[in-house]
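Input record, target 12 of the design panel.
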């Protein structure tokens, strides 16, 4: 135990240094995981090579190169790394093309390197990890992956003095990779790209070498060049003079050595085992793809390289509220207000969740103590995702606070009250520490073992990777069983991805090559309906391919996908003539091309008529990201150029943003291509399937900025009634960011009768953090949520969801808002009445009996109107229900005047839920076409 405690303290200290923090759950207990017997090497290996999901499909190339070098090595499965010892006792570690490391693994890596370990890494290492992990890796590697280069470039020696080991002829040649951004101190760049400004291709430090390309993949580099760099770096670290070469083995490192992937422990993802051995290589069609002919437009001046971040991550950064522990950076007035407000909001969410639980329990006659409701035993629901989350308090052990909910809330209120004083005294570090303590204390108080959810849209994106790993109907059934048990009622099933269909199509060129001998879509529809779930086909609309998917299939990275390969004239291009914009990974169709539109309409019609799907979700219903102010624009397909020139007399490649009138016409032209296609899809598919639910996955950027950057004007689609659900990708790592991303659209008056369903990304989000975001959704005027994605829906989330929103035994199934809006409104209102009844029965404000009686009478009038509408919808009943609701809403604050003084947050929540009912009635009127 002493060693465990010592390691835990070190881990906490290092994660603070990296600028992020995690809750200390005693999670680094070294004997808590099992390691299967492994095969010993005949000679002592000198290298450990990391195998993970992200390089599994590249493993053949990686292992072939390692064998060619003749080096003895051990395989380290990434999923088995929980501590520094798990990286092994070999003194050199190789991380080829691993884009995701958890905070635990990053901490363990620094621990291992501090004992003398040397690291070689390649590709966009850690680029998909959480911000804190990326920061720590940057310090370990001496730099970070900046952005991918669009073309193959020559690697050449740097003009500055470089070490002798990195100055060999075989190290230089043609490579497709990315720019590595070196740190300023203690970092060298022995190899650079032969392009403007000669950016770094390789970065080295005393302890690490970072190669700026995907080592082991034929599409990136030749085997000879890969082998030369690995041999040179390996020999450098193994033969370095003291003090660099202090030892042959890492003290405390595991002696286990698996020499093959097959002998390594099996990896798991979610609840399904995943074999560690890679799938066979997928060969492309023997017929070489046609080459798409790009236009040669006039490049705009001053093209700036894009950010290395994904656009959705950039959006989150714009609204972030970071609270770094022990930082004494000044806190300005706006930040102080935000910190205090977030604590008050979190207090409100905790109390709102408890009220929902207690009111429901009272309704069914349960006697539940407040202590049992609190999550003081939250360690049950604090899995690895919580332990690794970089925005948690490292010094607070969840489950260690033996205090009641009321005591916890009292303590937090004192902290919130004292925050302005600490900030006024410039005691910024203590203010931040107190804030984090308060947040952690509140998270412990969420009720996690009782049902509290009302009828709502509980949707999840079931991604292509998870479908492929399922492998069969039986494997898919396990996934649907878990989702159904967790209360999920709507599945967005990835049906068209990167130009491939998940099913055998008569319209599309090719079924996804990773699917063999079965039809996942047909099976998914059956599985969903057997479990009273809806199945919506999730389709990529204008995105036609994916470089990352090509790598999985061992295809040329720039293969445009099967459709564009067969129809090069359908392609779209940027202002430099690139089909894939610089720094991005997907080619796009030209939305202005009539043949593209007809193909997609025919494909979508096949899906909704051949399969009994309940809905269709359009993804990538936009142009790629652009930045006109930086000279990066898109949309110059052959058909678009011809049509725009016919309209205006000007080829759009010859205009620039400085020509305001013409540029606005060009932007409007492209936006209308998307708008008209959405309308066409809606009209044509609803003629075939009148009950089809049409949804769109969209970016929550401000409208004008969004139209300029991606030509996506989804407010228009909503107002026209083209779509039923707007699903904004409001992805954020904490609840305050999530609220700031989602709030403008939830409050928007521009969506007509369309329902809005905020998206929540599960990746790197702690389990109780997910619960917090769900509670916010339930306190706002929306009808549900969408989770991205099924591959991140782990067992801890499954357990939490099953307890709080899982299915209850009943003779009737719970309504889904987008399918049964009137029934949903009636049930949600009944739940509201239960909460009011509970509050009045436990009234400490001593309201007059007449006040309570008046309130109940008016509430009962509305209940009766909603129930009659739900039982037998008609225009007259809808009119009565609306009038009753409007009258009740207008008087609600007066009726709740005393409660407003003592708990304004809860009153606002109730008002929001009444607005949700109002929106359900408006949606139902359009959906059921109940107009007088």
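The sequence produced for target 12 reads:
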């Amino acid at each position: 135990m002493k060693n465990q405690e010592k390691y835990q303290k070190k881990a906490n200290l290092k994660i603070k240094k990296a600028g992020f923090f995690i809750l200390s759950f005693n999670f680094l207990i070294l004997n808590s995981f099992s390691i299967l017997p492994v095969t010993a090497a005949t000679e002592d290996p000198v290298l450990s090579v990391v195998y993970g999901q992200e390089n599994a499909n590249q493993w053949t190339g990686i292992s072939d190169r390692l064998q060619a070098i003749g080096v003895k090595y051990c395989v380290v499965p990434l999923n088995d790394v929980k501590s520094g010892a798990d990286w092994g006792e070999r003194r050199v570690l190789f991380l080829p093309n691993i884009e995701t490391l958890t905070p635990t693994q990053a901490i363990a890596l620094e621990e291992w390197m501090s004992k003398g370990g040397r690291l070689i890494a390649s590709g966009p290492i850690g680029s998909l990890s959480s911000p804190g992990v990326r920061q720590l890796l940057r310090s370990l590697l001496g730099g970070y992956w900046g952005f991918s280069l669009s073309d193959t470039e020559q690697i050449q020696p740097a003009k500055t003095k470089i070490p002798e080991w990195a100055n060999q002829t075989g190290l230089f040649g043609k490579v497709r990779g990315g720019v590595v951004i070196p740190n300023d101190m203690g970092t060298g760049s022995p190899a650079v790209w032969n392009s403007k400004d000669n950016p770094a291709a390789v970065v080295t430090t005393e302890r690490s070498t970072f190669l700026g390309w995907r080592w082991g993949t034929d599409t990136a580099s030749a085997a000879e060049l890969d082998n030369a760099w690995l041999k040179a770096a390996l020999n450098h670290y193994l033969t370095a003079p003291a003090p660099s070469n202090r030892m042959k083995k890492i003290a405390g490192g595991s002696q286990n050595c698996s020499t093959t992937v097959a002998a390594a422990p099996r990896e798991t993802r979610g609840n399904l085992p995943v074999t560690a051995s890679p799938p066979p290589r997928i060969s492309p069609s023997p017929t070489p793809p046609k080459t798409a002919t790009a236009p040669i437009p006039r490049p705009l001046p001053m093209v700036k390289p894009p950010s290395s971040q994904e656009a959705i991550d950039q959006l989150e950064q714009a609204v972030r509220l970071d609270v770094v522990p022990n930082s004494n950076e000044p806190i300005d007035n706006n930040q102080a207000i935000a910190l205090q407000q977030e604590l008050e909001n979190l207090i409100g969410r905790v109390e709102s969740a408890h009220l929902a639980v207690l009111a429901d329990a009272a309704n069914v006659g349960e006697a539940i103590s407040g202590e049992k409701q609190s999550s003081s035993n939250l360690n049950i629901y604090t899995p690895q995702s919580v332990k690794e989350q970089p925005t948690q308090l490292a010094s607070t052990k969840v489950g260690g606070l033996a205090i009641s909910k009321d005591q916890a809330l009292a303590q937090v209120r004192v902290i919130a009250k004292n925050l302005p004083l600490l900030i006024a005294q410039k005691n910024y570090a203590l203010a931040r520490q107190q804030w984090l303590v308060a947040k952690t204390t509140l998270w412990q108080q969420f009720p996690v073992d009782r049902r509290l959810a009302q009828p709502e849209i509980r949707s999840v994106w079931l991604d292509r990777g998870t479908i492929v790993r399922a492998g069969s109907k039986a494997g898919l059934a396990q996934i649907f069983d878990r989702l159904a048990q967790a209360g999920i009622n709507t599945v967005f099933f990835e049906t068209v991805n990167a130009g491939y269909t998940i099913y055998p199509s008569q319209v599309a060129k090719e079924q996804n090559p990773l699917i063999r001998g079965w039809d996942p879509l047909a099976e998914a529809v059956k599985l969903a309906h057997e479990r009273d779930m809806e199945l919506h086909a999730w389709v990529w609309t204008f995105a036609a391919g994916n470089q990352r998917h090509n790598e999985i299939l061992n295809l040329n990275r720039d293969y445009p996908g099967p459709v564009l390969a067969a129809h090069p004239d359908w392609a779209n291009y940027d202002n430099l003539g690139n089909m894939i914009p610089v720094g991005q990974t997907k080619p796009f169709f030209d939305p202005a091309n009539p043949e593209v539109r007809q193909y997609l309409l025919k494909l979508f019609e096949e899906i909704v008529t051949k399969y009994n799907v309940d809905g269709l979700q359009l993804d990538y219903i936009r142009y790629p990201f652009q930045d006109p102010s930086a000279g990066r624009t898109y949309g110059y397909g052959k058909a678009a150029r011809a049509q725009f020139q016919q309209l205006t007399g000007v080829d759009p490649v010859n205009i620039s943003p400085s020509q305001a009138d013409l540029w606005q016409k060009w932007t409007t032209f492209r936006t209308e291509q998307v708008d008209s296609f959405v309308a066409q899809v809606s009209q044509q598919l609803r003629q075939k399937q009148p009950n089809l639910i049409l949804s769109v996955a969209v970016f929550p950027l401000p409208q004008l900025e969004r139209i300029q950057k991606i030509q996506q004007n989804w407010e228009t689609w909503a107002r026209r009634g083209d779509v039923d659900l707007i699903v904004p990708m409001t992805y954020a790592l904490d609840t305050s960011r999530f609220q700031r991303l989602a709030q403008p659209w939830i409050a928007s008056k521009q969506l007509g009768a369309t329902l809005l369903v905020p998206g929540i990304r599960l990746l790197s989000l702690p389990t109780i953090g997910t619960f917090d975001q769900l509670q916010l959704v339930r306190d706002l005027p929306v009808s549900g949520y969408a989770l991205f994605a099924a591959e991140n829906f782990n067992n801890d989330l499954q357990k939490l969801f099953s307890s709080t929103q899982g299915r209850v035994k009943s003779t009737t199934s719970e309504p889904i808002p987008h399918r049964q809006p009137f029934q949903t409104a009636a049930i949600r209102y009944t739940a509201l009445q239960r909460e009011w009844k509970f509050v009045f029965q436990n009234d400490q404000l001593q309201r007059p009996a007449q006040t309570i009686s008046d309130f109940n009478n008016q509430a009962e009038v509305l209940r009766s109107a909603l129930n009659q509408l739900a039982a037998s919808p008609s225009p007259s009943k809808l009119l009565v229900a609306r009038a009753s609701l409007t009258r009740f809403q207008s008087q609600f604050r007066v009726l709740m005047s005393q409660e407003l003084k003592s708990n304004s947050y809860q009153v606002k929540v109730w008002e929001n839920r009444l607005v949700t009912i109002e929106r359900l009635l408006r949606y139902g009127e359009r959906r059921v076409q109940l107009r007088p």
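Residues 1-42, 262-309, 366-402 have pLDDT under 50 and may be disordered.
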